[in-house]
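Summary for the funding panel

The consortium committed to producing paired sequence-structure records for every protein in the target list. Below we show the first two records in order, beginning with the earlier of the two.
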Amino acid sequence: MFGAGASRKILVMQILFTFVQALGLSSLLSLGIGAAVNVIGIPFLTQLSQERYIYSLLIIIITRELGPLLGAFIIISRSATAIATEMAGMVISHEVEAYISVGVDPIEHLASPRFLGVTISMFLLNIFFSLFGLAGSFLVAQLFNAMPAGIYFGNLLEALTLPDLVVSVLKSIVFGVIISLTAIIRGLSVDRASTEIPVAGLKAVGSAFGGCVLADILLSALYYMML
């Protein structure tokens, strides 16, 4: 795939659509969540004289749990539908058959770039979600207890453990695989009726949502079992 210019172009365009164009919405959402955690968490923890746990709470909510899952939901709503309907349209219009007839592998040329593009985008979006979420929490924290950025982010790094980081990265990769495979399979599974194109998109979204939620539960349970 990397040797074919057309496939590389599809890969780049998929990352552009799935990651770059979704970065604005993801950043805004993560900033809001980071701010909300501090607005709700700091007063509550202050009443219990446990303010130091706000950093662990931020890592758990933003980096380990909501970051990968909300990033997956954003990609599902944008890319899963787009990929499934696009692939279904290619099947209905006999474009896939045309590729096969001229000796081009449709899996290599059509499916692989989209699979890699979505998976890479999910990984990158998760990283930026965590960064913007923690940055948003810092801005709101200044209203409660102003402190230098170095101290605040130093405390966050102390609260961040290797298992937290591994689970977050693993979730993002697994979610990317689930979303991309589900969208591709649903898109290629249509028959010959054009009315199946929107149905394929809806099925891709539903299956991807269910798969990601189930994977999130299993990975979180595995994390707590290994502690």
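The next record, for a separate protein in the list, is shown here:
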Amino acid sequence: MTNGSTAPAVGLLLPRPPRDGETLVVVGGLPGSGKTTVLRRWSSHEGPEVAGLDSEDVAARLRDAGVRVPYRLLRPVVHLAHRWRVLRAVRGPTPVVVLTDPWTSPAWRAVVLRAARAAGRTVRVLLLDVPPEVALEGQSARGRRLSSRAMRRHALRWPALLIAGGEDVRRIDRDDADRLALDDVLAGR
């Protein structure tokens, strides 16, 4: 089926030039480290429109829609829907996209960063560095724990991520996260 257009569909994937002020802010960290808390605090941000993306929002929407299955069974659906939302938001018109993600999957990082570059977005990455024991306490506090296998996988990948760093990557602890304002991140401070 054709739509009468001779423009190739792959043109949608071509990079756009940088768009002034359009930014992707990634708050990375072990599950339970406090990423969602940072996002919630920033949700009242005054300034450009901000899209906050957290997989917990997808899970909550499914629960609100009446889906009543254990999270371990729901998790693949949540992650798929969340990742779809992330890629749509990164390519979309909202000036600031804030993503919370463990950021420990090299393949997912590559996809998100490639999408951000293609969208012409500046990328800022904050790595919320807390010990695994503290992250486990955070998981308990929110009432949902990862399997020990999944947590171990994240924890094993975390040190390499901290070492890799980069010019737009900033390592922070919980005290830093409590003080940091979204405006500071957007200004590169």
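Regarding this second record: Residues 1-14 have pLDDT under 50 and may be disordered. The chain is about 50% helix and 15% strand.
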